[in-house]
């Protein structure tokens, strides 16, 4: 009643390692450098192992691991901001120009959308990733990122628009003219 | 060219809901409403297509990122070289944590209660010496300016306590015994042996009184250990400094307005000899005899107060 069975590392691995691919994928999308992503994922697993006694069996292990991932990522991001190495947020003017939704090309290359995603500010990028790639629910995202549900919705909306705008920029820089069946705003072919 | 009525309120509302629709977060009723609109509005349907295409492309690009083989091995290796948290490998349930917390709280409360009682006991005993000193020596001023001759002091002390006089004289270097007598506490049957001495510019009392079954607590209230294994205690009461000791049947106190360190030093020199003499005259030496020191910070009393007539002298 008072003590649970002894923890075995095999039990932890059975619960946590199936989510390695998801964590690594998100880590790569969030920090781009693959070796740093590997380090980050290793740290996430070590921290999860150390606090496995607090994990309630039967609850969402994947969401728990992602929560640790974002804790570490935010910590890392704060350190970088302090060191003035990154610009964490887009300028407000940039966000304000999102009312117009540019067309989305028919054929999108992996490298183009990854490049576009890299240009999306971190807090929007991580929300879009959580929803569109990892398919977490709004509530799970709110719990994981420790933000209100309304903030999840607004970040997701803005994040998707930002991604779309950045993708259009990337396409323009390559001289690619978007091919669409219809146009974006107000009229169609 | 088909021109869509893009600015319609219904289009605006549907487009605001497209994000939630994409994430499957809409209520069933709202979803039906959106679907009905999409069936009839090509522009919004096209917009949904764009958003879905963007999401699909993002998911595909992300899916290309697969963890290298060595990462899983590295994690397993590091996990096995790291201990899990919280007492090694035990996993306490919330019940266990709550029970442990309750037990600790009860133990802490018990210990706190015992300490408080012990502290109160020390204070109550040491107060005896403080009170006697203040009433007889300070307020009562029951001592002459010129020392009473030793033979008269021995007579006042009587055969039972006369033998203590040379000990006090010898073990209090720098102090002159002005007065020695047996006092009775007003309104009480309790008597005490009182030596009033003068030295270092102040009045110092040595007071001995029967314990009547009381005893001081051992342990953390000890402040020093005098030669011969006599334990010394001290306390702060009524703004004064006092020192006291315990023999088999007596409490002993050394009281003055000297500093606490000096009081401990004086008591340490006096207590062992007094304890031995009291034990020889009153019983065995088997029991330990702590010495208590009470510190009085200042006299603050008017020494010109008239003698208390309620004090009886032998």
Structural commentary:
- The complex is a heterodimer of chains A (189) and B (314).
- By secondary structure, chain A is mostly helical.
- Chain A folds into two domains: 7-88, Rna Polymerase Sigma Factor, Chain: A (Orthogonal Bundle), CATH 1.10.1740; 89-179, Orthogonal Bundle (Arc Repressor Mutant, subunit A).
- Chain A has helices spanning 9-16, 20-31, 34-50, 61-82, 92-96, 110-118, 122-133, 138-145, 149-173, and one strand at 3-4.
- In chain A, helix 3 packs across helix 4.
- The longest helix of chain A has 25 residues, at 149-173.
- Chain B has two domains: 9-63; 110-296, no CATH class.
- With 314 residues, chain B is α+β, with helices and mostly antiparallel strands.
- In chain B, strands 2-3-4-8-7-6-5 form a seven-stranded antiparallel beta sheet, with helices on both faces.
- In chain B, helix 2 packs across helix 3 (42-63).
- At the A-B interface, strand 1, helix 1, helix 2, helix 3 and helix 6 of A face helix 1, helix 3, helix 4, strand 1 and helix 5 of B.
Short description:
Chain A is an all-alpha fold and 189 residues long. Chain A has 9 helices and 1 strand.
First-to-last CA distance of chain B? 131 Å
Gyration radius of chain B, in Å: 43 Å
Continuous helix count of chain B: 8
Report helical residue fraction of chain B: 40-55%
Question: Beta fraction of the residues of chain B?
Answer: 15-25%
Catalogue the unreliable spans of chain B.
Answer: 1-5, 282-314
- CA radius of gyration of chain A is 19 Å
Ranges of chain A with pLDDT <50 over ≥5 residues? 85-96, 180-189
Mean pLDDT of chain B: 79
Main beta sheet of chain A: strand number and arrangement? none
* CATH homologous superfamily grouping of the largest domain in chain A: Winged helix-like DNA-binding domain superfamily/Winged helix DNA-binding domain
How much β-strand is present in the residues of chain A? under 5%
**What would you call the shape of chain B?**
rod-shaped
Taking the alpha carbons of the first and last residues of chain A, their distance comes to 69 Å
Assign the structural class of chain A, choosing from mainly alpha, mainly beta, alpha/beta, alpha+beta, or little secondary structure. Answer: mainly alpha
Structural class of chain B, by secondary structure, is: alpha+beta
Estimate nothing, just give the exact number of structural domains of chain A: 2
């Amino acid at each position: 009643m008072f003590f649970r069975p002894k923890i075995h590392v095999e039990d932890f691995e059975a619960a946590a390692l199936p989510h390695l691919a998801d964590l690594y994928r998100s880590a790569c999308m969030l920090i781009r450098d693959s070796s740093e992503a590997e380090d980050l994922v290793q740290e996430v697993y070590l921290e999860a192992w150390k606090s496995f006694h607090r994990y309630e069996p039967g609850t969402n292990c994947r969401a728990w691991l992602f929560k640790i991932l974002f804790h570490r990522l935010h910590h890392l991001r704060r350190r970088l901001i302090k060191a003035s190495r990154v610009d964490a947020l887009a300028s407000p003017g940039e966000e304000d120009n999102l009312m117009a939704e540019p067309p989305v090309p028919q054929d999108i290359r992996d490298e183009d959308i990854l490049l576009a995603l890299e240009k999306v500010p971190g807090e929007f990028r991580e929300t879009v990733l959580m929803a569109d790639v990892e398919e977490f629910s709004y509530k799970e995202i709110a719990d994981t990122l420790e933000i209100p549900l309304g903030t999840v919705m607004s970040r997701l909306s803005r994040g998707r628009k930002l991604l779309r705008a950045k993708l259009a920029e990337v396409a323009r820089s390559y001289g690619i003219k978007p091919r669409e069946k219809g146009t974006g705003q107000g009229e169609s072919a | 060219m088909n021109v869509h009525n893009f600015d319609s309120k219904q289009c605006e509302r549907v487009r605001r809901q497209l994000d939630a629709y994409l994430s499957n977060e809409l209520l069933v009723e709202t979803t039906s409403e959106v679907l009905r609109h999409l069936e009839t509005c090509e522009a919004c349907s096209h917009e949904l297509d764009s958003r879905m295409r963007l999401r699909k492309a993002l998911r595909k690009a992300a899916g290309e990122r697969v963890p290298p083989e060595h990462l899983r091995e590295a994690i397993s290796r590091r996990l096995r070289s790291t201990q899990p948290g919280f007492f090694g490998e035990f996993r306490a349930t919330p019940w266990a944590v709550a029970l442990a917390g309750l037990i600790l709280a009860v133990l802490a409360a018990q210990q706190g209660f015992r300490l408080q009682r012990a502290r109160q006991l020390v204070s109550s005993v040491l107060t005896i010496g403080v009170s006697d000193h203040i009433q007889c020596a300070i307020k009562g001023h029951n001592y002459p300016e010129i020392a009473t001759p030793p033979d008269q002091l021995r007579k006042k002390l009587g055969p039972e306590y006369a033998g203590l006089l040379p000990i006090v004289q010898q073990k209090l270097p720098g102090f002159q015994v002005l007065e020695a007598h047996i006092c009775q506490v007003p309104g009480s049957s309790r008597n005490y042996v009182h030596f009033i001495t003068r030295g270092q510019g102040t009045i110092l009392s040595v007071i001995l009184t029967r314990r009547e079954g009381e005893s001081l607590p051992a342990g953390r209230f000890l402040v020093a250990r005098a030669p011969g294994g006599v334990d010394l205690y001290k306390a702060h009461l009524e703004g004064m400094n006092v020192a006291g000791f315990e023999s088999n049947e007596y409490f002993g106190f050394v009281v003055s307005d000297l500093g606490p360190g000096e009081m401990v030093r004086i008591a340490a020199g006096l207590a062992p000899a007094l304890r031995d003499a009291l034990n020889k005259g009153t019983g065995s030496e088997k029991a330990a005899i702590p010495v208590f020191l009470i510190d009085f910070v200042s006299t603050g009393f008017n020494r010109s107060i008239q003698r208390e007539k309620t004090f009886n002298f032998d």
